[in-house]
Amino acid sequence: MTYVSYPLIEHKRHLLLKNHRGNLVIDTGSPVSFHEDGVIELGDCKMNVPKSVQGIVDSRYLSEKLGIEVKGLLGMDFMGKHTTVFNTKKFGGFISFDDQGFPDADALGSFSVGGCPGIVMKVNGMNARMLVDSGANLSYIDRRFVQGAPFVGQREDFSPMLGTGVFATDTYEIPCHIGCGNHKDKDVNVVFGLPPKIVGACLWQNKVDGVIGYDLFSNFRVLLQNGQVALPPQGI
Fold first, then answer.
1. CB within 8 A of 235, min separation 6: which ones?
2. pLDDT digits over 45-73, tens only?
3. What is the rounded CA–CA span in Å between residue 152 and residue 135?
4. How confident is the model at residue 235, as a pLDDT?
5. Secondary element (H or E) of residue 139
6. Exposed site from 117, 138, 202, 214, fewest CB < 10 Å?
7. What are the start-end ranges of the H helices in the chain?
8. How far apart are CA 47 and CA 42, in angstroms?
């Protein structure tokens, strides 16, 4: 695949790109992609994909939940094979694939769960193993990291793991430190929700403390390369 870039759409803290086949949700938290046409085309790469995930999550489901027309979802079966650089509005507003220009990017302490990337970051002063989920508009954290953090209300979210899909969660604003121990490091306050029991159990089984979503991408340029999450130079 040759280098290609697309405008990065930010809709209600969700990240999407648009090409000639319509809007795609960009989801590093999903191991698989899908599209209502059964194919995803990006640049000169064409990938056959299912039309839904297990017959539950499809373009209609995402369009209804996000309030914008969505044709499919781009997951880690694609991004795990192609260097991907996220640049939210703060950094120019585009996403690129197979950009080879970042040999000096700083890799974060990282891991993988089912092909989906994770990083280690500080949450409330403690090391936390966090899945990196560009499809999550709200970040989540285990209750033990919430101690002393201010409650900031309830937020509504959705997950196909739950029967109705929609749920409400208590949220807390928690200080975090993200970086590699150099000038790119940032102290940021992140609003976290408490995961529903079934989601929390899944995280616990995989030795994961939480999920960092849109908040990571809005504060950093983010590079996915060779299974690692890295921080390229932060200028546009």
1. none
2. 999 999 999 888 999 999 999 999 999 99
3. 22
4. 67
5. strand 139-141
6. 202
7. 59-66, 76-79, 197-205, 214-219
8. 9
